[in-house]
Design goal:
Blueprint (H helix, E strand, L loop, with lengths): L8 H13 L4 E4 L1 H8 L7 E6 L3 H11 L4 E5 L4 E5 L4 E6 L1 E4 L8 E4 L2 H6 L8 E4 L12 E2 L3 H7 L1 E2 L6 H4 L2 H13 L2 E2 L1 H12 L9 H10 L7 H12 L16 H15 L5 H10 L4 H6 L6 H19 L4 H8 L4 H10 L3 H11 L8 H6 L6 H15 L6 H18 L2
Parallel strand pairs: 2-5, 10-11
Antiparallel strand pairs: 1-2, 1-8, 3-4, 4-5, 6-7, 8-9
Helix pairs in contact: 1-3, 7-9, 7-10, 11-16, 14-16, 15-17, 15-19, 16-17
Length: 419
């Protein structure tokens, strides 16, 4: 298949226009070239291209040709994004990266294509196809500075230079993700360098948003749950999760937990981001304060995990409990907390009953009914409603008439003992 036919007709038109705006300066680099050479199914939904020069100026010119697209520019990082109805086009300037210290966000500046390739992570991600104005490309025109074609043939993940994992610990996560995703092996020197980098403790307890993002990539729907488990277990075998926090390790039954989480998420929490929920599950292996410091949990997730330990300790006492007792305790927890506990606890049947039978409980009477029967407004209505709800849940109240009789009797008894 020609490189042109790797794209849809609409994508071909846009890329041809882009090549006219940046003649002899437009390149396909990295994953898109790798996937093309591997014969990955065509029509990518995310297209990454590189311009030698000012990509933002080129992106704005392209946007004028396609004004219906949404353009975003990121001058600090020398990148631009155009969102088309069917795909997203990311354009980057050829750039060099400088890391002020290991694990830091890079500082970027414009450079030549050759310099840009020096900052790439792995040989198979540093292959280049120049895109001509007529889109005429042949495999013989591939630029390969680091024997990436040979590693592609051998199905190996190999850094383009020594010290790449010291420079950026995210590359440890990326190396393993690519190896599993592509069904490649880590080259022996890659294994050794990862091992040495982790042993140096240079990245221990680094945490932060960039490593958090790498975990979210691993938990993506395209990998979850089976390949996510393989990636995470491989990382754990290197002790690479210590880059996030030294206490972060995986439960032995991770595959079972992830499959269970997939089911419970689908049944009870389908509108909640599943990647974030899986991340909360991983973070539950840490103290909440440590998970916050490592930037594994944010916002509502902090509340979920703060509640989780209390709920897990409370569940055994609810087994074989009255429905009203289970309801009154579990209704106080966030739904995400209940789902996480349902995934983790051997007493999950209690939560399952609550979520499937009692969560959407409809009471026989309302506060308006109580007022109609003579109950004064205020605290008493809430107390009566709670008692009626408990009786109904426990099967001791079965009709509206029974509720009316009970309430009127309670009111009489209360009136009789009032001074």
């Amino acid at each position: 298949m020609s490189f042109r036919n790797f794209f849809s007709p609409g994508q071909q038109e846009v890329i041809s226009q882009l090549s006219n705006l940046a003649p002899d300066r437009l390149y396909a680099v990295g994953g898109i070239v790798r996937d093309y050479l591997l014969g990955t199914p065509p029509v990518p939904t995310d297209i990454d291209l590189m311009v030698e020069g000012d990509c933002i100026e080129v992106a704005r010119a392209l946007h004028r040709l396609y004004p219906h697209t949404k353009l975003q520019t990121f001058s600090k990082f020398l990148t631009a994004e155009l969102v088309f109805p069917e795909f997203v086009l990311d354009i980057a300037s050829a750039r060099r990266e400088f890391y002020p210290y290991p694990g830091a966000n890079p500082q970027v500046s414009a450079c030549s294509l050759e310099e840009d390739l020096q900052r790439r992570d792995f040989t198979v991600n540093a292959l280049v196809i120049p895109i001509k104005p007529n889109f005429a490309v042949t495999t013989g025109e591939i630029i390969d500075r680091f024997q990436g074609l040979a590693d592609l043939e051998k199905r190996l993940i190999r850094p383009i230079k020594a010290g790449t994992f010291v420079e950026d610990p995210r590359r440890i996560f990326r190396a393993i993700r690519f190896a599993v995703k592509l069904n490649f092996a880590l080259a022996p020197e890659t294994v050794q360098e990862i091992t040495d980098t982790i042993a140096s403790n240079i990245h221990t307890d680094l945490g932060g948003s960039r490593l958090r993002s790498e975990l979210l990539y691993i938990l993506d729907a395209s990998f979850f749950p089976s390949r996510s488990v393989i990636m995470l277990e491989k990382l754990d075998s290197f002790n690479a999760l210590s880059c996030i926090h030294h206490q972060l390790h995986l439960p032995a039954n991770l595959a079972i937990l992830f499959r269970r989480l997939q089911r419970w998420h689908k049944y009870f929490l389908p509108h909640y981001n599943r990647q974030e929920l899986a991340l909360e599950l991983l973070a539950s292996n840490l103290p909440v304060t440590a998970a916050i410091k490592a930037d594994l949990i944010r916002g509502d997730a902090i509340k979920h995990l703060t509640q989780l330990s209390q709920l897990l300790s409370e569940l055994p006492s609810l087994v074989n409990g009255a429905p009203s007792r289970i309801f009154n305790r579990l209704e106080t927890y966030e739904l995400a907390t209940l789902v996480l506990a349902g995934v983790l606890s051997p007493y999950r049947s209690v939560i399952w009953q609550f979520l499937t039978r009692w969560r959407h409980f409809s009471p026989l009477v309302t506060g308006h009914d109580l007022q109609k029967w003579g109950c004064p407004r205020g605290k008493m209505i809430g107390l009566f409603l709670k008692e009626l709800r408990s009786l109904q849940l426990d099967g001791k109240l079965n009709s509206y008439a029974e509720a009316e009789y009970l309430v009127k009797n309670w009111l009489r008894e209360k009136a009789a003992i009032s001074p």
